[in-house]
Design goal:
The structure is a homodimer. The first copy, chain A, is mainly α. Chain A contains 6 helices and 3 strands, in the order ααβααββαα. A 3-stranded antiparallel beta sheet of chain A has the order 1-3-2. In chain A, helix 3 packs across helix 4. Chain B binds a DNA duplex through helix 2, helix 3 and helix 4.
Chain lengths: 170, 170
DNA sequence: AACGAATAATTGACACTTGAAGTAACTGGC
DNA sequence: GCCAGTTACTTCAAGTGTCAATTATTCGTT
């Protein structure tokens, strides 16, 4: 497109608005990258500790955590939803835990398609030990931040979560 | 420990402190879970869009993003550090991108152990298209949150990042 | 110059994750 | 009762990720 011939001293009128928009763009991406960095740091820390202290993994811990408060067990599909992963994934993790005797698949008499997955007593024992330490790891990581700032973060992240939890409906 | 005999109206002195500690524990874990939920939401959204619109993945996008502003290329180990993943992982992702002609490994005459990985012109072209859309996705997700709150979040996450970026020494 | 230690990258084994395709079981309308 | 459609779960292939072991190269000391 041809350049307009403009008087030498004319400043573009849209600069302010564009600048603000540009900043906002940058801001959103920066926010995203920073949040990602924090999450990765904590996650990898927890992961390493689970591996080193209990020879287990975050997904396994997560699955057991979902089961802990579900006395009557959870269906594979419920686990899938709560862990926010696909069904095929849950199958594999459950296989592993079952092989180690930490969970069991029980058939549901009312619907033979369904399994109810439950923690075994052994699984409960092990999970409780892990959960206690897990809490300490997280607390330790965050301890140098003031409660005031932590509270602010929880608030703001709560707001963010509400904003992003449903896709910007067309 | 033996209870002190105290006048009836005296309230136990440690209750406040204990309560605060207990709240703090809860607070840290809540903060962690909430941050994780937000990150997962954004990440899976970006992932799906990259797959659907460009038949590519987040790690590939991430690697190309690291290369974009490094005209002279990056060593495998530098990529590994910046992407916060292990070296073996970088090898695999680079293999894939090189096979598709989006990056190249160039040998370094000064040190024959290292590769300098660079974007090809084709890789640059594709990355720029992806980056533009990526930015729109993130902006879209976050658009309903005020700039003020976004700024506060960036600030607080920056502080959190500093606190957790080095393990609580010794 | 030569050797041991450190560094750069790759490889292989194993685990997690997704998406698509497959199997078995249930449901509702005819 | 049948059968099309849905639901629950599994299986498989490909990509991502870690760790430990290996190879090749460089560096520092002697």
């Amino acid at each position: 497109m041809p350049k307009d011939k403009t008087p030498l001293k004319l400043v573009e009128p849209r600069v302010d608005a564009e600048t603000r928009i540009h900043d906002d763009h940058h801001l959103s991406v920066r926010l995203w990258l920073r949040m990602l960095a924090c999450t990765n740091r904590v996650e990898s820390f927890v992961r390493q500790n689970l591996q080193a202290n209990f020879t287990t993994t975050l997904p396994r811990f997560d699955l057991m955590a979902q089961l802990e408060r579900a006395v009557q067990g959870l269906k594979m599909s419920e686990l899938s939803q709560r862990m926010m992963v696909t069904g095929g994934n849950v199958t594999g993790i459950t296989d592993g835990l079952e092989k180690e005797g930490l969970v069991v698949r029980e058939t549901d008499p009312a619907d033979r398609r369904v399994f109810r997955v439950k923690l075994t007593p052994e699984g409960q024992r092990q999970f409780r030990r892990m959960a206690a330490e897990h809490e300490q790891w997280v607390i330790g990581l965050f301890e140098s931040m003031s409660m005031k700032h932590k509270n602010q973060l929880v608030e703001l992240l709560g707001e963010l979560k509400r904003h992003i939890s449903r896709p910007p409906a067309e």
